[in-house]
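Figure 3 (text version): C-alpha cells given as input.
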C-alpha cells in the first residue's frame, strides 16, 4: 500500500504549524510550567476557529467531520511545539466517542461546544489512575466497567498529582453519580472504551513523533553552534552517529503512526494491532532521541534554563501514557497468538 497525504491535508498541516510556531514558542511552554492553570484559552480558540479542535466533530454539530488520517499530521505539529493542552483528549478521543455513541441530548450539548472551542474535554478510561487537564476541563468522559459517563467539569472533585512534565497537569478525580449522564453501556460500552483507547494511543504516538523531530532539530542547531577545539562539535564522528541513530528510529516510527491512523479511520479489524505497533515504535523512538539529544547537549540540556528539558519531560510523560512500549509489545504478541 502506498500512503501519502493529500494536498489539502498538507496545506492544513502547514497552516497549523505556522500558527503554533507563532503562538506557542518555547517561551509559552515555559510559561505553562509556572502559570496557575498553564492554559491559554485564546490559543485554544484560535485552533478551534481553524477547525482543528472540532476536526472529528460531525458537520451536523459544527465540526469538520474528518478522521484520524486528517488529524495525525496536525498532532505531529502539536508535538513539535510541545503544545500544552488537551487536544489528544478532546479531539482524538472524546469527540469521536460522543459522536458515535452518545444519546442526542449529550451529543447536542457537548459536540457543538467542542467544535466552537467553548468546551475542553478530557477522559479517564479503565486502568488510567489520573486525568490530564481536569483542572480546565468542561467535560470529563469516564469509564466505569462497561459504562461510560459524561460529567460536567464543575461537578468534579480534583486532587492534584505530581507529574514529570510541569505543563501537563494530572489529577485524581471523583464525582457523584447524580451528576453523570450515561453515554453508553453494555457490550457497546466496552467497544467504545476500546476504540477510545486505541485513538488515544495512536494520537499520542503522533505527538511523540513531533516531539522527536523537534529534539533532533534542536540538537542539530546546538552542535552546529557549539565549538570545541576550534570546530563545531557536529563535525565529530561520535556526534554524527548519535544524530544518525536518532533519525533512523524516527524514520521507522513515522510510517507506523500513519498506518495506524489509516487503520483507525477505515475501521480495519487489525486497528488495535496497528495502533500498538505505532505506540511502541513511537515511544521507543522518542526516548532514544531524547537520550541522544541530552548526550549531545551535555548537562545543560537538562537544566531548567535550557528549552530542551521541556521536550525531554513531555517525551518521558507521553511515552508512558496510553500504554508504554513494553505493554504494547505484549498486546501485539497476544493479538498475533489469538489470530
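Below: residues designed for each position.
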Amino acid at each position: 500500500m502506498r500512503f501519502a497525504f493529500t494536498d489539502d491535508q498538507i496545506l492544513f498541516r502547514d497552516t497549523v504549524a505556522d500558527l503554533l510556531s507563532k503562538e506557542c514558542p518555547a517561551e509559552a511552554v515555559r510559561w505553562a510550567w509556572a502559570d496557575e492553570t498553564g492554559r491559554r484559552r485564546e490559543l485554544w480558540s484560535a485552533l478551534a476557529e481553524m477547525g482543528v479542535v472540532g476536526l472529528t466533530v460531525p458537520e451536523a454539530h459544527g465540526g469538520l467531520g474528518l478522521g484520524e488520517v486528517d488529524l495525525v499530521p496536525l498532532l505531529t505539529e502539536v508535538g513539535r511545539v510541545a503544545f500544552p493542552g488537551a487536544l489528544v483528549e478532546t479531539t482524538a478521543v472524546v469527540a469521536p466517542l460522543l459522536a458515535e455513541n452518545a444519546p442526542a441530548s449529550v451529543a447536542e450539548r457537548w459536540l457543538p461546544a467542542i467544535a466552537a472551542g467553548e468546551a475542553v474535554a478530557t477522559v479517564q478510561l479503565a486502568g488510567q489512575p489520573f486525568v490530564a487537564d481536569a483542572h480546565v476541563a468542561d467535560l470529563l468522559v469516564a469509564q466505569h466497567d462497561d459504562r461510560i459517563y459524561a460529567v460536567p467539569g464543575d461537578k468534579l472533585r480534583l486532587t492534584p498529582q505530581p507529574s514529570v512534565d510541569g505543563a501537563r497537569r494530572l489529577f485524581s478525580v471523583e464525582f457523584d453519580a447524580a451528576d453523570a449522564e450515561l453515554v453508553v453501556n453494555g457490550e457497546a460500552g466496552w467497544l467504545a472504551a476500546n476504540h477510545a483507547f486505541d485513538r488515544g494511543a495512536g494520537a499520542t504516538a503522533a505527538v511523540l513523533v513531533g516531539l522527536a523531530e523537534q529534539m533532533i532539530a534542536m540538537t542539530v542547531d546546538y552542535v552546529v553552534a557549539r565549538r570545541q577545539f576550534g570546530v563545531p562539535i557536529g563535525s565529530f564522528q561520535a556526534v554524527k552517529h548519535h544524530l544518525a541513530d536518532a533519525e533512523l528510529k524516527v524514520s521507522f516510527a513515522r510510517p507506523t503512526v500513519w498506518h495506524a491512523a489509516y487503520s483507525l479511520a477505515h475501521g480495519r479489524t487489525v486497528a488495535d494491532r496497528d495502533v500498538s505497533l505505532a505506540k511502541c515504535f513511537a515511544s521507543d523512538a522518542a526516548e532514544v532521541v531524547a537520550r541522544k539529544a541530552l548526550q549531545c547537549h551535555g548537562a545543560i540540556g537538562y537544566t531548567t534554563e535550557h528549552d530542551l528539558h521541556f521536550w525531554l519531560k513531555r517525551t518521558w510523560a507521553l511515552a508512558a501514557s496510553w500504554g508504554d512500549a513494553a505493554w504494547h509489545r505484549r498486546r501485539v504478541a497476544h493479538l498475533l497468538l489469538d489470530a
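Residues 62 and 112 are 6 Å apart (CA to CA).
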